[in-house]
Every structure is written in structure tokens, then in C-alpha cells.
């Protein structure tokens, strides 16, 4: 699977900058992210980190996906 394309803010000279944010996860959520990264490596042979997983989810999520959030 190819990495998700990022929409970043353009700077002078074509440089790109990503916005920094903090997200706090429960230990169970961190475990799930780690499990996803581990399974991805087992299936593809390529390492992926938590940030890449969260970015992918944000890039592919739409408002209909959020209907069951309380």
C-alpha cells in the first residue's frame, strides 16, 4: 500500500510544513496502534509508525464514519 498523500501548507521555495498537534490515547488505544503497525509489517515487510496510521485514518475518514461517536 502506498503512503497516503499529505495536504500540507506550502511555504516559500516549495517547502512543506505540517501542523503540530497532540492527541492523548488510552493504553488500549496505543496497544491497538502498535498491533496495527505490527500486523502491517508482517503482511508487507514494511515498517509503519503510529503517526502514519493516524494520518491515513484522518485522510480517509468522512463525516458518515463519525455517526456513531457519542
Shape label: globular
Largest sheet: 2 strands, antiparallel
| Neighbour order of strands in the largest sheet | 1-2
- List low-confidence stretches: none
The DSSP helix count reads 2
Report helical residue fraction. 40-55%
Strand content: 5-15%
Structural class by sheet pairing and helices: mainly alpha
Mean of residue pLDDT values: 85
Please describe what this structure looks like.
Strand 1 (9-10) and strand 2 (16-17) form a beta hairpin. The model has no long low-confidence stretch (mean pLDDT 85). The protein has a two-stranded antiparallel ribbon with strand order 1-2. It is globular and about 30 Å long. The chain has helices at residues 27-44, 50-60, and strands at 9-10, 16-17. Helices cover 41% and strands 6% of the residues. The chain is mainly alpha-helical and 70 residues long.
Offer a concise description of the structure.
By secondary structure, this protein is mainly alpha-helical. Helices cover 41% and strands 6% of the residues.
Please render the helix and strand layout as text.
Layout: E1 9-10, E2 16-17, H1 27-44, H2 50-60
Antiparallel strand pairs: 1-2
Amino acid at each position: 500500500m502506498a503512503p497516503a498523500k499529505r495536504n500540507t501548507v506550502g511555504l516559500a521555495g516549495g517547502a512543506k510544513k505540517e501542523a503540530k498537534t497532540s492527541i492523548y490515547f488510552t493504553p488500549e488505544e496505543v496497544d491497538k496502534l502498535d498491533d496495527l503497525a505490527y500486523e502491517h509489517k508482517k503482511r508487507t515487510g514494511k515498517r509503519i509508525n503510529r503517526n502514519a496510521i493516524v494520518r491515513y485514518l484522518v485522510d480517509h475518514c468522512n463525516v458518515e464514519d463519525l455517526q456513531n461517536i457519542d
